């Protein structure tokens, strides 16, 4: 393999510049390993394709580490077990795919309202309904706009490589604890099932913060109550405004996106996750033909990287949003982006995975 | 003179929102007495349900986690697994436990989670204004069975204590009423037992307490107690259905 | 000498004999389980009304209370204290 190819791969996989031993590993397993290295010792989940590697791996590893693995009776039970463990101060996680995440929406609403941290992983499959087991990005709205009730937001992270399946899981726990909020990792069946080399060591030491609000028994202190019910006059409103302050802080401090060949571009692609990898290939092909195309890859979907999108679309007039759905993130790109830019969308829903050539065709038509 | 009966330490000295003659108040006191009797207050975490007992945290001076409707046994599982040295209990009504939460209680029981479950069964949905519960009696009029519960349309009352007793993870399953002082004192013994079982790490301990709901039964408090005695007990027999310490009896 | 029960007191009580109870006048919701339960019928309905509109149960005058505690055990509002 040429040095150029190796570097290219290292950039795509996110291993570039990292110290450590490369291991060829499946995305779901890297994610599960990331959770363990983040100090997660409680996993509760229910089987669903295409994420079963996660509970299977953790059912093996957690008992060895003195942790707890329960295959719960349903996704509803899973998210509620996560809530109980989180209220006890533990780093707890569950994982599922679209239909199971739908069942968890009540739990996510409660966890947000109660200001508890947790990580919820969605390895997206196509839908709606039972759908299929092929990859999709059709749960963007569910994760980012909130499929549950009430005025809350999830932190949403979108890996685009097996390395990021590992790294962003660690980040998910960090942000969940920092803000006392659920963090959703939004991946898809391709990222879950593919194998890539990755370095399974955290980029920086994992530090779990002190938690002085957890329920440990009212020993020598007044009772603590973790609840979401606010019936007093004005209480719920005040609580919602406090939550909003957190979300505003997230918007201020936690936006993350990758820019690829954007500086001299006259055409911009915006894509996340697997779609961004395919777009990257299309961009290299286009560059080979002399077209100056660049990519903004949101890594946080909430908070949406409006600054990066606004800046790039302010300079680059022609924008193509590529997703594996019928148009979800594109709405946020339009909202955040410069109004004078021209926005186009190309999507393949229902398990359709675009080939780089299809995206190249779109580029050539612009 | 010596004071020989007073409010338990764990039960806050506050007026409750419960209706006159609602035996949630009695059940709350029995649980508080158990917690005090075994010296558990400072290492107990309660998991509150949704229903008339949603304000548990206002009455019990302990750490409390609110759970979504029906999910308390799952949330309690999370708490107990994370803190196995703590005492964890749920306190649930008939909608919470026997309707929306049937899956969660059966599986927590099946896994033998080391928690105590207090189930207050008054055959009706109190908080929401008197709709049918899974435990509503045949022929009983509720706001959603205006002509009385008809098995053809609405099924039969569910007997949770007997059902859970069939599960191996359950170490204790019993039912008692609170309709007169004799039965309140028997109920107290069972509630104490259910907490003691958790201290001894034995499995899931379940106590079903038959209660009146005078408001939604449209009767006076004393009539409500009478109805528990004449109508509910016939459908929900009192007794200990499982006791892994070997003392199954009434 | 027997204490007189005064209408503006929050608690009804009396102070002779082996046992004595107090019923929190404001806390009582007039379910009357205690009246039904007392084996010696030493509790009655008050003609007064508390701030929530209930006619609370009040101990009768007299000295026959044995402090058996059955009234307190049956009170859903933990409104009764018992002394012996």
Can you give keywords for this protein?
heterotrimer; A: about 375 residues; alpha/beta; Rossmann fold; 2 domains; 7-stranded mixed sheet; 5-stranded mixed sheet; B: about 250 residues; two-stranded antiparallel sheet; 10 helices; about 20% strand
Describe it:
The complex is a heterotrimer of chains A (366), B (250) and C (84). By secondary structure, chain A is α/β, with parallel strands linked by helices. Chain A is built from 14 helices and 15 strands. Chain A has two domains: 3-210 and 241-253, Thiamin diphosphate (ThDP)-binding fold, Pyr/PP domains (Rossmann fold); 257-365, Rossmann fold (3-Layer(aba) Sandwich). Helix content of chain A is 42%, strand content 19%. Chain A is globular. The model of chain A has no long low-confidence stretch (mean pLDDT 95). Chain B has 250 residues and is an alpha/beta fold. Chain B has one domain (24-243): 3-Layer(aba) Sandwich (Rossmann fold), CATH 3.40.50.970. Chain B is 37% helix and 20% strand. By secondary structure, chain C is of the alpha+beta class. Chain C has one domain (23-83): Alpha-Beta Plaits. Chain C contains two helices and five strands, in the order E-E-H-E-E-H-E. In chain C, the strands form two sheets. Chain C has a three-stranded antiparallel sheet, with no helix packed on it. In chain C, a hairpin with a 7-residue loop joins strand 1 and strand 2 (20-24). Chain C is globular, with a radius of gyration of 12 Å. Chains in contact: A-B, B-C. At the A-B interface, helix 4, helix 6 and strand 9 of A face strand 2, strand 3, helix 3 and helix 5 of B.
